[in-house]
Amino acid sequence: MPATVPPAPQVLIAGAGPTGLVLALSLLHHGIRPRILDKAAGPGTASRAMVVQARTLELYRQLGLAEAVIDRGIKVEALHLRETAAEVAQVSLQDLGKGLSPYPFALSFPQDDHERFLVERLAAAGVAVEWDTELAGFAETPDGIRATLRRGGSETEAAAGYICGCDGAHSRVRQVLGLGFPGGTYGQLFYVADVRLAGPFQPDLSVNLATQGFALMLPVRSRGMNRLIGVVPASLGDRPGLGFEDLRAEVEALLDVRVEQVNWFATYHVHHRVAARFRQGRAFLAGDAGHIHSPAGGQGMNTGIGDAVNLAWKLAEVLHGRAAPAMLDTYESERIGFARSLVETTDRVFRGAVSTGLGGRLVRRWLLPRLLPIAAGFEAGRHAFFRLISQIRIAYPDSALSEGKAGGVAAGDRLPWVAPLDNHAPLDGGGWRLQVHGAVSPALAAAAAERRLPLDAFRWTAAAGRAGLARDAAYLLRPDGHVGLAEPRQDPGRLAAYAVRHGLSFAS
């Protein structure tokens, strides 16, 4: 029989990739101590996720992580589009989202470095990842879950209020729940390599959309290396023991580089799947355990981190008794809809990028090189591209937590960022708060004070209007910075009704 260990904290996390690590850090930020384990011996060393999007940095700011992550990464300032051995277009990515986010850029920060950073931050907060520890199984009990953990040849039992599977595409949590993972696998075999190039360090993003292959290159600041990702030619896909030397000539030609050193090399297949459910009872799925898709647009890791932040504050509110248990239902309804939409979008982009048909060749060789530089020359074009990839457009209009609209901002939207006020500065991820741009009515001020609900008042500016905010409207903000209630008349009765409906107690 497995030996019994002391009761675990309230949330057990299986999987210590970026999703699980951010979930653990977010729970700690909300006063909930997690337990996190992973069957691997340590953080990954051959990961392929590279880009940290603006919305992730906004969420990291609430956790006090953003500046440290930016310092360790590198801002990608230009995109070089290549066709065969020639550059056909260059697009500036500097301040792509200026005026839309305090982080108007894409950051290159490889997942392996990213994971080590998060592990260090978690350890500094007093929580160590339990490596070499596998979740063997679990069952729900009347007041929580009971899990069996396997380390080496021995098993132990652990109790927790909830369990979250952040354990990747082959999630043990999802398997125990018996949830389907519908979707498919692309036929192409991909490679990823960490290399040192001859000549000066290349800090830009290069993409080759040649008919005979697909390759991209991103910078790795921590080691002065570059990450190469691409499609293995079909003629080599079945070669046993495939290595970088088999691809060297083609890769160097496609990207116009010479590789001096290969740090590591791996191959992988790309899948597109979304789990049937993200929640079943006291068990949740997040990150790759719930959704996997093509790497187009650098969305996968960022989506998992978004899952983690969304789930963490809701678990904390319920565990602290500050929200009704039904709050947890909104995790699945909010995140699974976005995951399904993302899989569809990245699937279309991916198929276009690797298509060898006439349509795909026209898009890659004619449309993109001509239209992208033109669009990037106008603010509207830059902003449209930034909104598309940065994840600041994520919204939950159909969520049970979303009510009302004021100006151009509807409940469920991410609170628009207003420069130079920086109205995101008060958002510390710690709890609910009100925000008003304009005059605050005495009735609303009294209602906020009575409920110990922080109220941030900003003077009205034209910039707030351009961002879509309504003058004198009250926006009740969730801990993740999305609008829960948009109230144009500052009606304290509507605020009270909203709190009662969701069982909210705003006092921390």
From TrEMBL:
<dbReference type="InterPro" id="IPR036188">
    <property type="entry name" value="FAD/NAD-bd_sf"/>
</dbReference>
<dbReference type="InterPro" id="IPR002938">
    <property type="entry name" value="FAD-bd"/>
</dbReference>
<keyword id="KW-0560">Oxidoreductase</keyword>
<dbReference type="GO" id="GO:0016709">
    <property type="term" value="F:oxidoreductase activity, acting on paired donors, with incorporation or reduction of molecular oxygen, NAD(P)H as one donor, and incorporation of one atom of oxygen"/>
</dbReference>
<dbReference type="GO" id="GO:0071949">
    <property type="term" value="F:FAD binding"/>
</dbReference>
<dbReference type="InterPro" id="IPR050641">
    <property type="entry name" value="RIFMO-like"/>
</dbReference>
<keyword id="KW-0503">Monooxygenase</keyword>
<dbReference type="Pfam" id="PF01494">
    <property type="entry name" value="FAD_binding_3"/>
</dbReference>
<keyword id="KW-0285">Flavoprotein</keyword>
<feature type="domain" description="FAD-binding">
    <location>
        <begin position="10"/>
        <end position="345"/>
    </location>
</feature>
<keyword id="KW-0274">FAD</keyword>
<protein>
    <submittedName>
        <fullName>Monooxygenase</fullName>
    </submittedName>
</protein>
